[in-house]
Specification:
alpha/beta, 7-stranded mixed β-sheet, 17 helices, about 55% helix
Length: about 525
């Protein structure tokens, strides 16, 4: 390659590298703004407008699909809710294709005998998936308010006594409670997930609500005013995140939401990589679908500018997974000196060090600040325990890039997919998942494509890391860029090995189950 061609090749590559890094830094800057806004609004705790003279009728909706391991525990908690029986209706929305339907019928008869108004609405198809089930249930629900709970949630007895007073304000459409994590300490994956989710639920949702921006229903652990759902056009199932879709439509109608950061409804986290990937794929793809559907509608609405800007960041943030994949590829030749800036833009020049450090700060350090702040909110006495998990947290975020980038691309090109629910196992008497549950009801990988690509990325970055460390030891370069290599190196190996390990474990447990049956 001629010297001129090499110059322009290097120039174009460096421009692409910094443009991607600037884009990633923009989302990092948003995380920093969330921290600042939280500190500003941390004392603006919402208060109910009054109290009910007579409690209104509430319908508890329990959408489920093949949830036989958790349905009994869910109903025990729901029937223990401290609310007048004559003001409480329970709907089990069952789309199951296994024997969950038979179990639900038994549970309905049992609780009916105890005086509960409970029924099971069973559909023989999954038209619209969860949104379709909720749409059908709303048509026959008696209550003017709807408490929606996924099958793995365990509501506290006072959930309605805490949430219902907010509805004395006729403009309130939704009261959302914060998710808790029953199995936070089960393994490394659940610990990292809990930190990710704490960032969203304890920090982002709180800030959005208290600062006058839009926030979205989380699909469960919230109470809706039924007429607000109807006013916005009802549940629609052209996306697989029907909760996000409905939330924006309702708020653009002028209804207000309340987020209760200090009230927790516990739930179960996915305990293996397959369940986590399925959940993240659904959330990521659904968010992009809602972005394509609602983005310009939001900007044409009468919503405040700050609400529009926050909604835009929320709806587009998952495109960053495509940028992250691109960044991983762009950083390789830079870190190995295949692409080398010249003149005043050499790596050791003051302006390049300043620029790199600034972008690194907003792309990485702000993210760490965000999650540390969230843990300080959730676990004020043990928040410091997040520090040993920062590197694994960043690594997992990068390692999920292939899985989530695939979801983004599918949504961009309109590829349809079914609503793949997150596996919910419950606990056996010994506190461990049974062989039967693992082997028969929740299969391992349907495809090895994603973990295979992750493994290739891991091997790729292992080679790049070796080449870079060689230059470090020979004094050719410093350690500054090593963080860009360590995160993908660790992350891609972790996600791929966990998925392949789940595949091997599934085969082993099916063999054990077959041997036990014989």
């Amino acid at each position: 390659m001629s010297e001129t061609a090499q110059y322009w090749f290097n120039f174009v590559w460096m421009i692409a590298y910094f443009l991607v890094l600037i884009g990633m830094s923009g989302y990092g800057f948003h995380r920093l703004m969330m921290v600042i806004l939280y500190l500003k609004h941390r004392k603006d705790v919402p208060k109910p407008a009054g109290q009910w003279e007579e409690w209104p009728l509430v319908t508890v909706q329990l959408p489920m699909f093949n949830e036989k391991f958790v349905v009994e525990g869910l109903l025990r908690k729901v029937t223990a809710i401290d609310y007048p029986k004559d003001k409480l209706e329970i709907q089990i929305l069952d789309d199951s294709t296994d024997d969950t339907w038979e179990l639900c019928k038994q549970q309905v008869e049992y609780y009916k005998a105890q005086g509960f108004d409970i029924k099971c609405l069973h559909r023989v198809d999954r038209t619209g998936f969860k949104a379709g089930a909720l749409e059908a249930a709303d048509a026959v629900a008696k209550g003017e308010f709807l408490l929606i709970l996924d099958a793995d949630f365990r509501p506290e007895p006072d959930i309605l006594k805490v949430t219902m007073p907010y509805f004395t304000d006729p403009n309130i459409a939704l009261v959302q409670t914060r998710w808790g994590h029953i199995n936070r300490h089960k393994n490394m994956l659940t610990r990292l997930q809990s930190i990710f989710l704490d960032g969203h639920f304890a920090l982002e949702q709180t800030v959005r609500n208290r600062s006058g921006r839009f926030f979205t229903f989380n699909g469960t652990a919230g109470v809706w005013r039924k007429c607000a759902i109807t006013d916005a056009g009802g549940w629609e199932h052209d996306t697989i995140t029907e909760d996000m879709d409905l939330s924006y439509r309702v708020q653009m109608k002028g209804w207000r939401f309340v987020y209760l950061n200090d009230y927790v409804t516990p739930a179960e986290l996915p305990e293996d990589m397959d369940g986590f990937k399925a959940q993240q794929h659904r959330w990521t793809k659904g968010c992009i679908q809602v972005c394509r559907k609602m983005f310009w509608t939001i900007w044409r609405s009468n919503a405040p500018l700050k609400a529009k800007m926050e909604a835009s960041t929320h709806l587009t943030c998952n495109y960053s997974y495509l940028a992250l994949i691109l960044l991983c590829l762009l950083v390789m030749p830079i870190c190995t000196d295949l692409i080398a800036p010249t003149g005043d833009w050499q790596w050791d020049s003051p302006r390049m060090i300043l620029l790199t450090f600034t972008l690194f700060f907003f792309a990485t350090v702000t993210v760490c600040m965000f999650y540390v702040t969230a843990e300080a909110i959730v676990r004020p006495r043990r928040w410091w325990m997040v520090f040993p998990l920062i590197i694994p947290l960043l690594a997992l975020g990068v390692g999920m890039a292939v899985n989530n980038a695939k979801a983004v691309i599918e949504a961009m090109f309109g590829k349809p997919s079914e609503f793949v629910r997150t596996p919910k196992f419950g606990e056996s008497k010994e506190g461990e998942l049974s062989i039967e549950k693992r082997s028969k009801d929740y299969k391992a990988l349907k495809s090895v494509l994603v973990p295979s690509i992750e493994l290739l990325f891991g091997l790729f970055f292992a080679a790049v890391e070796c080449a870079y460390l060689y230059k470090v030891f020979t004094g050719s370069v410093g350690l500054m860029l090593n963080v860009f290599l360590m995160s993908p190196f660790l992350g891609f190996f972790y996600t791929s090995f966990c998925s392949f390990g789940r595949l091997i474990d599934g085969v082993r447990q099916r063999r054990a189950a077959a041997k036990k049956a014989a």
